[in-house]
Amino acid sequence: MAAAPPGRAVSEGCRAVKPPAIREENLTDPATMVGWIEEIVAQGIRRPGYAADRWVETWARDRFLEAGLEDVRLEPIDALRWEPRRWSLEVWAEGREDEVTKIPCYAVPFTADTGADGVVADLARADAGDLNGRIAVVENEFMALPQSIMPELFARWHYDPSGELDSLVQRLPFGSGFAEVMNGAIAAGAAGFVGILRGLPWDTDRYYVPYDGEARPLPGIWVSSKNGDLLLERMAAGATRARLTVQRTLEPIVSHNLVGVLPGASDEWIIVGSHHDAPWASAVEDGGGIALVLAQARYWGQVPRERRPHNLLFLLNGGHMSGGAGLIQFVEAHRAFLEKDVLVEIHLEHPACEARGADDGQLVATAAPEVRWWFTSFVPALERIVAGAIRSEELERSLMMPPEGFPPGSQHPPTDGAFFHPLTPIVNFLTAPMYLFDEADTIDKVHVPSLGSLTRATIRIIQGLACETAAGLRSTIYDPGVTGYQAPD
Q1: Cα separations (Å) of 249 from 53, 81, 312?
Q2: Which residues of 32-44 are buried (b: 16+ CB within 10 A; e: fewer)?
Q3: How far apart are CA 229 and CA 235, in angstroms?
Q4: How many helices and strands in the chain, by DSSP H and E?
């Protein structure tokens, strides 16, 4: 990691100095941020290796330079480019090949190519027993998470002055299997996979999961709940055959992590990051994250060096939709730097609206924000700083989440900043709206009020760390299993 010019060590009298007020004139207004997101979305589907993602890399680089960042560079990363060319599902009753029904569908990412002729086999429900040589039909139920259980089971602190979490049930953008949803069919020797999307308030098959960059050995497609009902009705009426076709390209490509720095008043670093690729044209995932990072770069670029508490590194990594390739390669390339010189990595993702299904079957955004998760390391001072920023900006529906253990058994948070933990303390902001991996993630789903409040909250977190050091924060990391619950003041 190329270092910025050295600053100074944190002074002994630092803790007695009140953090400076936020400079209102340096803030980027939400209308400008929405304009950035609109410009990004207008480029089209932004998967790794797609033209729109390459465009965003250079566009964001130019914004970094305009903000006054130094050492702006594109670090190459290896990723996979997956593009579906043709996909279809045709079904017919056994022995009646002349009566074919076409079922609308969409290809499952990173599944096998069938060639133009497709795979022809019997359809069988996944719970029906023998799947060998058959096309497995799986109902993929999206999880409903009652928020009333979160403070007791997972969150270490929450900010919910209106008491909305007591009755709120959040529909998550995945089922219990998530990336492993095809594993059972693969293990059983199935010839193909049909996943029915269940539990959503609108009818869709445009679902970009899994996105782990792992090539599957059998073809798969998603069908909507309504078309899944039609398919199951056909199967219930008697033996049903199908032709499943997926033609796609899967090739290695070079994407990039975008990096820029601003020297500050100490020798140590804070990282502010998000990712620039996406499953679709995706406004929230992560056009919103790009806008939040750019707003920080613009703000701190206008602050004199001596008033920036620490050196700042701004990161927009690529390959998130290819198994987190950019994150993994950044962490591996800069491991020693992260372990020694970084106070905190702040990741900003998904300033999202909560959405509801309308009477006409469409998905519509509400005025409310989606539940806000703040994955924060087990560091008392950091917890207090984050909680103070949340309170100051009145970021309701906020849960301070552990950096590990959610979902149960995980060793990292479910964010694009996952693998910064445990190398360095983290604050990873994220929401998980049910449309996150769907093409329904459009500009109307961006929670515009969050753009301003999250920008200000992030500034407060950075300011609050002015008197902290990397070694000092690490020396106070606690084990929640030993010390128990540590509530911020």
Answers
A1: 17, 8, 39
A2: ebbebbeebbebe
A3: 10
A4: 12, 18
Residue 154 phi, psi dihedral angles, 5° rounding: -130, -55
- Reduced to 3 states (helix: H, G, I; strand: E, B; else coil), residue 56 is helix
* DSSP symbols for 207-266: B----S-PPPSS-EEEE-HHHHHHHHHHHHTS-EEEEEEEEEEEEEEEEEEEEEEE--SB
- What is the dotted CATH code of the domain comprising 17-80+252-483? 3.40.630.10
CA distances from 258 to 64, 76, 221, 306 (A): 9, 9, 33, 25
Task: Kindly report whether the global pTM for this prediction surpasses the value 0.90.
Answer: yes
What CATH class is the domain 82-153+171-251? alpha beta
Cα atoms found within 13 Å of the Cα of residue 18, Cβ hemisphere only? 3
Non-local CB neighbours of 262 within 8 Å, separated by 6+ positions: 4, 68, 69, 70, 297, 300, 301, 305, 308, 311, 312, 314
Give the integer Cα–Cα distance in Å for 467 and 463: 9
Q: On the CB side of 488, how many CA atoms lie within 13 Å of its CA? A: 23
> Do the Cβ atoms of 243 and 129 come closer than 8 Å?
no
Binned at pLDDT 50, 70 and 90, residue 2 comes out as: very low
Domain boundaries, the chain: 17-80+252-483, 82-153+171-251
Residues with Cβ within 8 Å of residue 304, at least 6 apart in sequence: none
CB atoms within 10 A of CB 21: 7
Ranges of beta strands (E only) in 206-239 are 220-223
**In the block, residue with structure tokens 């340096």:** 26
**pLDDT of 142-186, one tens digit each?**
999 999 999 989 999 999 999 999 999 999 999 988 889 999 999
Query: What is the pLDDT of the chain when averaged over all its residues?
Result: 94
User: Coil, helix or strand for 31?
Assistant: helix
CA distances from 169 to 128, 145, 147 (A): 32, 5, 6
The encoded tokens of residue 101 equal: 């029904």
Residue owning tokens 């050295």: 6
